[in-house]
Structure formats: structure tokens, C-alpha cells
Amino acid sequence: MLKKRNTVLLFGIVSIIILISVQIIIIKGVWQQKDEMFNLRYRLFSQDAISSMNRRLSTDGFDTVRFILNGYSEQAIIELSAIKNDSALAAKKKEILTFVQKALKQEEDLSDYLRNYFGRQGIEKNFNFKIVINRFELIDNDTRIPIYVSEEFADRTPPTPGSAPPSLIKKNTSEILVKGDRFERNNFRLDIECYIDFTNKQKTILKETFTSLALSGFSIIVVVMIFIIAFRNLMEEKRLSDLKTDFINNMTHELKTPLSTITVAGKTLEMPQIRNNDSKILETAKLIGKQSVHLNQLINMILEISMWERTQFQLDKKTIEIEEIMNDVVDSFKSGGGDGASINQKYNFNDAKVDLDAVYFTTLLNNLLSNAVKYSDKQPVIDIEGFTQNNNVYIKVADNGIGINKIDQKHIFDKFYRASTGNIHKVKGLGLGLYYVKKIAEAHGGDVTVSSKPGKGSIFTVTIPF
User: Fold this and answer.
1) CATH number for the domain formed by residue range(s) 318-465
2) Does the global pTM surpass 0.90?
3) Contact at 8 Å (CB) between 194 and 180?
4) Digit-coded pLDDT (tens) for 56-93
5) Distance CA 201, CA 34 (A)
6) Domain 212-310 of CATH type 1.10.287.130
7) Which of 372, 339, 348 is nearest to 460 (CA)?
8) Quick one: which of 132, 194, 131 has its CA closest to 165?
9) How far apart are CA 442 and CA 302, in angstroms?
């Protein structure tokens, strides 16, 4: 069973890991697909917007920029030609580049047109617009004066005027390339790329993939729950199998003890020296009778358990003074199976009378007292307290025994269950005593609880309404 449990556990864990890995791969693929579709959608809408701008307004949004830069470049060429110092020349080129960047940012009209166009199409229109300068040169007749060339642009062929952008997304960023162009006039040449960047792009994609994410998460949760339920059922099956095995072993022991005694007694009666001794015959007959009664009690106990499972618990209730029956049961236990136990009684029932089945209630109390004696590794001391409160009778049976750990406390009232304390107690049993106690208390409309610590004894509290 242990090997089977470990195999199921390992198989379940591996299956869940595989499922989660597959789901992650699927979700990652769906996310990438949605991301590409998002970029493609805005790329296409941007191209449509630029085409619409050219048709309707006969501009690409940079006419003002070209006009300003052409006049500025003419003056800049004159100023550069007069500079002979290298550091001054570098500073002037930096100043020219700054002016170009400022002109592009302030005088372009493409970003506003894109926002308006996206708004008319009913799609997200809040984006950051970015213009990247790849190359800027001044042109003096046939002479080109380089002002700035980006490292990335220097390694690839620049786009020709009006050509499509080289890629949809700028490398290692979420920026979508919507326009790549070259502006060339009498006094300058400018190569640029225009990007749009959506700050809530991830949120938009998350909304679009929410269904897939939810289904994947739900499937993982369902599989994990099924595995947990299956594993718990396996553990419960193991527990029940162990209980069955323990019950069979204990029942065999309990039944063999009186049978062995009866067998030995029968052979004793066959001996000639015994047949001629009336006192020995009488003693042996009493022993056979006593063991027969014990054997019959065990069989009846098992039959009653079977009957309780098939039919409703039936009680023959009578109104009884609770303190009187408590004294009778304890006195009988002291004279019968007390085994020298010290029993202290403290009652405050206020002459309360309760509707009880005397036989079953006696069984309940006897089982609690017997357990207090059996599960003690020293001289048994039992404290019995009784009182009434809120129309209930409370009976507490406390002992100085070996105690019960937290795990066993959850199951000690289960049928056939025996606490995992080894064979410390003096007499083996069938694991039915506390099951009887619970059943009888519930049949009277009450309950029984336990409070215990290993090595500190136990306190059983029976509650019965009146």
C-alpha cells in the first residue's frame, strides 16, 4: 500500500507539472500572437492614416519641418564654413542636431492626425509619439557635411523616400514603427523613423487573453483538486484497510482467548483425577461458563454493530435520577472490573431526572471507566464529575493514563479505530468501546468530546439533554 501511495503521489505530481508546463507554453503562444496582432493592427491603421492624410491634405505631416530645416540649414552651412577649430565645430554640430530634434518635435502634424484617426476608428488613441533621427546631413552644392549618423543606421541601408519601414517593431522595445522616411532638400538630408508606444498595451493584451488565461487556470485548479481528492481517497482507503486488519487481528485474539480457556477446561474435565474431584469439576464448569459468557458478549457486540448500521438506534428510555444510576454503575465497576482503581466522585446534579436507557447508559459509563483503567501505565486514578447546566447533564471522566495525541483524537470515536500507542494497555480490544460511547450519547440527543495530552491523561465529557 505504501508503494502504491508513493507511485500515485509521484505520478500525480509529474502529471500536474506537465500540465502546468503545457499551459504555460500555450499561454505564452497566445500572448505572443495577441501581441503581434496588436502591433499589426496599429501598423495597418497607421498606414491607412498616413495614406488618408496624403490624399485629403496633400501632406505627410512634416511639410513645416522641411521648410524650417531648409532655411536653417542654409544659414548653418555658412556658419560651419567659418569655423576652423575642431572643438567649436563639434559644438556647432551638436547645436544643429538639437535644433533639428526640437523642430521635429514641435512642428510635426502626424501624431495629432494619427490620434484623431484612431479615435474615429474606435481604437485606443493614447500613445507616446517618438521620432528617431538616423542621419542628418547638410548639403553645400555637391558636398555633404555629416552632422549625425546613428550607429544602428550606419550598419544598414537607409530607406528610400516613400518606401515601407524596414520592421514593425523597434528591436528590444514595444514601440511600433509606423513611418520610416528620408527628407532631402537643397540644403539638407534627413532620415527618420516614427514610432508609437502604448503605455497600456500589456493591459489591453491581458483583456484579450483573459478567457484563455482563465480557462488554463481553471483547468489547472480542477486537475489539482481531482488529484487531491483522489489522493485523500487513497489515504482513506489505506486507513480503512489498516482498521480492518487491526480489527481482524484484535477480534481473533479476543475470540481465541475464551475459546482456548474453554478448550483447556474441557480437556481438564477429561482427566481421571479431576472427574473424581467434585470441587475441581465445579470450579472448571464455572470457568467454562464465565468464558462462554465473555465469548457470547463479543459475538453480540459484533452483531449489534451490524444491526446499528442497518437500522436506527432504538432506546428503551425511562425517567431516572441521574445521580442514583451514576452511583450504581461506579459501585458495580469497583467491585467487578475496577482492578484497584482509585475513583473520586463529585456530583452536583440537583436531583435532576433524565430520560435514559439504563442498559445503554451503563454500557457508556462502563466503557469510559474501563478505558481509564486499561490505558494507564500506573495505578489508575479516575475523577468523575457531574453537574447540570443549560438544561444539559454534563458527566466528565478524567484519568491519569497515557493520554491521546492530537491525530488520534480525531478518530478515536470511529468504528474499530485504536490509538497508535502500541500495546501499552493491559488488555486488547476491538476498537469499539468509544464508538459505542459516541453512538449511545448521540442516541440520547447528546454528544461526547475528549481533551487529552500524551502522558497527561484524558478527560471525556458526555453531554445529555434533560
Assistant:
1) 3.30.565.10
2) no
3) yes
4) 989 999 999 999 999 999 999 999 999 989 999 999 99
5) 11
6) yes
7) 372
8) 194
9) 19
